[in-house]
Amino acid sequence: MSRVAFVTGGAGGIGSAICRGLAATGHAVAVADLGSGAQGALADELGGLGVELDVCEPSSVAAAVEETTEALGPIDVLVNCAGWDELMPFVDTDEAFQRKVIEINYAGPVRVTRAVLPGMIERRWGRVITIGSDAGRVGSSMEAIYAGCKGGLIAFTKTVAREVARYAVTANTVCPGPTDTPLLSAIVDASADGGKVIASMTGAVPMRRLGQPDDIAAAVVYFASDGAAFTTGQTLSVSGGLTMA
Known about the structure:
By secondary structure, the chain is of the alpha/beta class. About 50% of the residues lie in helices and about 15% in strands. It has 9 helices and 7 strands; from the N terminus they run βαβαβαβαβααβαααβ. Strands 3-2-1-4-5-6-7 form a 7-stranded parallel sheet, with helices on both faces. α4 links the parallel β4 and β5. α4 packs parallel to α6. It starts with a strand and ends in a 7-residue tail after the last strand.
């Protein structure tokens, strides 16, 4: 029987690559995302399930998990990939912006994990894979709130890993470096010096290129596999060598 994977932000640049990678390795994939319709199209392509999800709304999370469980079965693999950011000096941020970034990037993954984890514990098997960011490991100018959220997710994931290891449930974080996605393009396009931002990012990477969504997906597929059964509480940077620690 195929294991069931639930991917938040599944219709996005990195999320869609993750969904394809998990489907290619035999998972039944629930593509969970905001109601644009893109998740349904991707789910049809993969033979999975498209689910409408707003990670900021507890009722939406509960409904998406219930719909997935009824259609595909209990969730075995959770990938927290939904995220959002906008480049802005910290001193220019206001309460509304801060709340939005925190709700999407920190509270959202915590909320979804809380909804899915009890079933994994009960069945004594599970994978929780959270997409962090190197911004949360080393900091990133113009992304103070976002970086704080991602750093918080790393600590959250390590703590969850300690609590559930005895139940054969693992929890790990994948931290992309600069990655060529629609979100990055939107962030750069909103910047007055977008071209310089991309050039600076690329020049800082030892491999001299931006990451691709498939680079991130490969790490997620590993953490979801049986081969990663003894790996938990880890933070893996997928950044072309930008972050080495």
